[in-house]
């Protein structure tokens, strides 16, 4: 173990000073023997120890024994730390390749990926498991997570066809045109990056070139939903899809999404911020007022409100949630499928062109 630790340290030291390079070859030979379960060159090990302990032997000979033991402990810690660091680098790299984030449990914390609202993973983190005394669970959960990531590598390389993941009763921002390709968004009405993506889509004219539809996916949290009224808005969107307004140039559910994502109230506050901070009763009143403004009669508004609270809509939302989690496998909101790929997180105007 000491030889392996010495090699790790000497790699870095030899990179900045030629003084240590004469030890590096011996350290590598010793390390190679250890990892192939052969005895190490004890002369090299003793040379390194003598070099480190010589000053102490001159001043405090009685401390040489304990210091030698301490060196062995430090060597073990260096090796374990290096192995764990390498594991974390590999895990982060694979996650970044597959999911566009180096941390599946909190995708927003990874600065290397696109900006997004993360879908929380309720599985305890490695550190949380250790703090609770669950050592087996800490390693088991971590290795299981890495195994899931490796098993998802083929999905990163597959050709993504939005048509294969369409929800029931899909509605389109513009009239459906069979000559155009289909693009599918996965959005949370309360996520600010979904707002930014919608604005990028309109700026790029993406919706003119694609049949654009969406899955509304309210992001769950440990005690409800990440954005308090996301489920409520999703219920209304699904109810409006089930009861489309005849003759509407743009479906009413898209009109409501456009208002939430692109418009402000009379105080200059984004309607998304207003909805996110409103009490459910106030949010409901807004959605009903907007529905009437976009052409629904009072009877139709009442019917949509009834359908929004129905088991039918609850089943649709549950099915869509399963579709997102078990088939699309994204960990970032928004995600959008187009051009044969699943794009995780906020997509720039340039990439939408």
From TrEMBL:
Residue spans crossing the bilayer: 69-90
Organism domain of life: Bacteria
InterPro entries assigned: Thioredoxin-like_sf
UniProt keyword Transmembrane helix, yes or no: yes
Keyword tags: Membrane, Transmembrane, Transmembrane helix
Protein name as it appears in the record: Thioredoxin-like fold domain-containing protein
Lineage of the species this protein comes from: Bacteria, Bacillati, Actinomycetota, Actinomycetes, Micrococcales
